[in-house]
């Protein structure tokens, strides 16, 4: 493993520090007019960044799993196990992209789609575990060996915080009420 250079730290600072700065700045001065809380600002900016990066994380997980997939392919029924896992992960990636597009379009369906994405995290993990266990004939405790449970649990917990935010935030409610932004702009002219 290489060293973490100053440039890596600068990138981490930009990716995390700048959104946190704007979120803290917006929280420091509460709005007198709740209707003015519209758009990707404050904490919603952090959610937007996370939602934008989530499909990239899923793709990176695909890349990291390539060696494991090659090893599984040599086992009896290994190719079936790999194809099933890839199909599950592609379905989850498709859901992430649908949620991202709905967010960027400011669709009123975004909160419900975000909730579906949150529920999909444990569902995909459980289905994948059952699939691998049954296809390869391996006990579930062997499939869940090591820290296999840590990443999905952390992802579910962090996303649960954001799901609560999506349903409690005035900014989210005001931002995701439109079905077609361009039609509203045209009617206002």
Notable traits:
disordered C terminus; mainly alpha; globular; 0% strand; 189 residues
Topology, element by element:
Elements lengths: L5 H23 L13 H23 L1 H8 L4 H27 L5 H27 L3 H4 L6 H19 L1 H6 L5 H8 L1
Helix pairs in contact: 1-2, 2-4, 3-4, 4-5, 5-7
Q: How much of the polypeptide forms β-strand, as a percent range?
A: under 5%
User: How many strand elements?
Assistant: 0
Q: Please tell me how large the radius of gyration is.
A: 20 Å
Mean pLDDT: 78
Helix content: over 70%
Q: Give the helices and strands as they follow along the chain.
A: HHHHHHHHH
Largest sheet: none
Count of discrete domains? 1
Coarse morphology: globular
Count of discrete alpha- or pi-helical segments spanning 4 or more residues? 9
Secondary-structure-based class equals: mainly alpha
The residue ranges in which pLDDT falls below 50 over 5 or more consecutive positions are 179-187
Distance between the termini: 58 Å
Transmembrane segments: 6-24, 36-60, 80-101, 113-136, 148-167
Protein name: DUF2569 family protein
InterPro entries: DUF2569 (IPR019690)
Keywords: Membrane, Transmembrane, Transmembrane helix
Textual characterization of the structure:
The chain is an all-alpha fold and 189 residues long. It contains nine helices and no strands. It has one domain (31-188). Helix 2 (42-64) runs antiparallel to helix 4. It is globular, with a radius of gyration of 20 Å. The model is unreliable at 179-187 (pLDDT under 50).
TL;DR of this structure?
The protein is 77% helix and 0% strand. By secondary structure, it is mainly α.
